[in-house]
Amino acid sequence: MNNGRATILVTGGAGFIGAHLVHLLVKRGAAVRVFDLPSAPVARLPLDRIELMLGDIRDRRAVEAAVAGCREVYHLAANPNLWVQKRGHFRQVNYLGAVNVLSAALSAGVRRVLHTSTESILTRARQTEAIGENQHVLYEDVIGPYCRSKYLAERHALRLGRAGAPVLVVNPTLPVGPGDLGRSPPTQMMLDFCRGKRREYLDAELNLIDVRDVAEGMVRAMERGQPGRRFLLGHENLSILSVFRMLARITGLPEPRWRVPYPIALTAAYLSEFLADVYSHRAPAATVTGVKLTRRRMHFDPSRSLAELGLQPRPVAETLAETVAWFHAMGWLPQAKERVQRSTIR
Predict the structure, then answer these.
(1) Is 12 exposed, middle or buried (0-12, 13-18, 19+ CB in 10 A)?
(2) SS3 for the chain, per residue?
(3) Is residue 328 part of a domain?
(4) What are 277-302's pLDDT values in tens digits?
(5) Which residue in 36, 155, 190, 295 has its CB near the most CB atoms, within 10 A?
(6) Into how many domains does the chain fold?
(7) Is the pLDDT of residue 274 over 80?
(8) Assigned domain for 252 exists
(9) Does 293 reside within a domain?
């Protein structure tokens, strides 16, 4: 199938970042194998041009079969949510699953492994300076079971790389752009605003980067990155209010009306999680981890990583406009006439 080309494995290749990465690798002529869950939205992938294997990264035998014969491994598979009913699931998938993939890949003799981490584990209490790729964080600083599981996985990957294994780490900030079928927290937040369901905001800062630039940065990190290093893939620091104002200009909707005080937001998050845990068993409207992270200074300086990788991300305003257009194409937004009628009724 690969005509003699060495295979590249992408775990979690049907996810938001993963699908963009797979398309990019295929476009560059790579022989790509995707390993993802049986429930993953694989229809978005170029199935006629890749090899697809279904399984779970917690299954060591399935992972060993997936890495067999591969030259490089991009490890993206994880539970990206900030809430799950059984909190231990985060550790099993995000940490122990990562250990499985890294161990199997190195045992199989792959040339390089790229482990995908997250920006949310780089925050510290009482942070004053901008966060760079050399940020040092203690376990006690990390908020919530999702972030802790990702922190442990990153520490494991960096230890391997610094001990001489061909392992490096990338930490995307918040990826935005078209194609987020799973509706990650930033996508859901923006979609709710565009639907007219959100007129309030939290006083918090985000760092946004186009998902396609994340994929490009990952490829460049795999090609150029030094093992044992962390590369920060981020771009623009923006307040939530600034993001909503951009969306208001794009959609013609009114700007946000009022700021939610942190104590009220945190109380609502605890209540939402309680109702989700006990009654609905569905993702809550707000998560405790997500609200607590808004109290951290999420101001990033990825300039060193971007310069080393030669990456120049596109403007976030351009990405948001494309994202809104994609929302329309997916049928997720009401038509203009319908929106006007609703606003008149209110």
Answers:
(1) buried
(2) CCCCCCEEEEECCCCHHHHHHHHHHHHCCCEEEEEECCCCCHHHCCCCCEEEEECCCCCHHHHHHHHCCEEEEEECCCCCCCCCCCCHHHHHHHHHHHHHHHHHHHHCCCCEEEEECCHHHHCCCCCCCCECCCCCCCHHHCCHHHHHHHHHHHHHHHHHHHCCCCEEEEEECEEECCCCCCCCHHHHHHHHHHCCCCCEECCCEEEEEEHHHHHHHHHHHHHHCCCCCEEEECCEEEEHHHHHHHHHHHHCCCCCCEECCHHHHHHHHHHHHHHHHHHHCCCCCCCHHHHHHCCCCCCECCHHHHHHHCCCCCCHHHHHHHHHHHHHHCCCCCCHHHHHHHHHHC
(3) no
(4) 999 888 888 899 999 999 999 999 99
(5) 36
(6) 1
(7) yes
(8) no
(9) no
Residue 162 lies in a domain: yes
The range of the structural domain enclosing residue 129 comes to 7-176+208-237+299-316
In this predicted model, what pLDDT tens digit does every residue of 73-131 receive, in sequence order?
999 999 988 888 888 999 999 999 999 999 999 999 999 999 999 999 999 988 889 99
Which domain CATH number covers 126? 3.40.50.720
pLDDT tens-digit series, residues 36-46: 999 999 999 99
